[in-house]
């Protein structure tokens, strides 16, 4: 099973490869990151690590046994004890429960390690895989939204500190 690791400086080459390899695949479900993201990847990576060090975000990668990046699970924009959840899994690793396992572990870390009390998420109505992941990891719908011009749903999940300690 791939390991959930906090984002580090030395992850940059494998993370860039993951984003390049899956760019078209991700763009079918979520807005494309744009050419600038790829052109200035290292500078952006440094900025995100600085923001993580300041406590604004908790970024994670799902890393395979050969060091390859198979997915990302991020908790961003931390404020008032809560954060926004985001995730993406490599096309070649899809449908194996990786997103579900990664989100579960990130929720446990959020509760037990990062001291968060709630998480928010959002997905488009037509993203059945993402909705399945959120439903299985304890998120409940709390309203409608729009994402990249497509209708979507907002979700929330309360975090239980003790539950977090018992999970992986
Ligand atoms: C959404 C995403 C993260 C799911 O990753 P994953 O590792 O394949 O997810 P899991 O295997 O943990 O679970 C997916 C579930 O959705 C189900 N699923 C997949 N495609 C589906 C579809 N078109 N309709 C219904 N269910 C679907 C799978 O069968 C699975 O459920 P199961 O285990 O009961 O069979 C991945 O597809 C992805 O990265 N997509 C592009 C980016 C994205 O959409 N990110 C989320 C933004 S909110």
Notes on the protein architecture:
The protein is α+β, with helices and mostly antiparallel strands. It has a single domain (3-166), classed as Aminopeptidase, CATH 3.40.630.30. It has 7 helices and 7 strands, in the order E-H-H-H-H-E-E-E-H-E-H-E-E-H. It has helices at residues 12-21, 23-27, 35-39, 41-53, 98-112, 128-136, 161-166, and strands spanning 3-6, 58-63, 69-79, 82-89, 118-124, 140-147, 150-158. Strands 1-2-3-4-5-7-6 form a 7-stranded mixed β-sheet, with helices on both faces. A hairpin with a 2-residue loop joins strand 3 (69-79) and strand 4. The radius of gyration is 15 Å and the shape is globular. The two termini are 13 Å apart. The mean pLDDT is 96. The structure holds coenzyme A. Coenzyme A binds at residues 26, 29-30, 87-89, 94-100, 123, 127-130, 132-133.
What's the SSE blueprint?
Elements: E1 3-6, H1 12-21, H2 23-27, H3 35-39, H4 41-53, E2 58-63, E3 69-79, E4 82-89, H5 98-112, E5 118-124, H6 128-136, E6 140-147, E7 150-158, H7 161-166
Parallel strand pairs: 4-5
Antiparallel strand pairs: 1-2, 2-3, 3-4, 5-7, 6-7
The structure holds coenzyme A (COA).
What's the gist of this structure?
The protein is an alpha+beta fold and 168 residues long.
């Amino acid at each position: 099973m791939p390991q959930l690791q906090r984002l580090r400086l030395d992850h940059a080459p494998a993370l860039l490869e993951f984003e390049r390899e899956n760019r078209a695949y991700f763009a079918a479900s979520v807005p494309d990151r744009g050419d600038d993201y790829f052109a200035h990847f290292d500078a952006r990576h440094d900025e995100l690590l600085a923001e993580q060090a300041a406590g604004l975000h908790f970024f994670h990668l799902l890393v395979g046994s050969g060091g390859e990046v198979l997915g990302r699970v991020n908790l961003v924009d931390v404020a008032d004890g809560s954060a926004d959840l985001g995730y993406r899994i490599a096309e070649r690793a899809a449908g194996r429960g990786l997103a579900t396992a990664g989100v579960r572990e990130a929720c446990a870390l959020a509760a037990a390690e990062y001291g968060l009390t709630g998480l928010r998420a959002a997905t488009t109505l037509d993203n059945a895989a993402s909705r399945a992941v959120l439903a299985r990891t304890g998120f409940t719908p709390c309203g409608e939204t729009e994402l990249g011009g497509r209708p979507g749903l907002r979700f929330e999940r309360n975090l239980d500190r003790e539950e977090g300690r018992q999970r992986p």
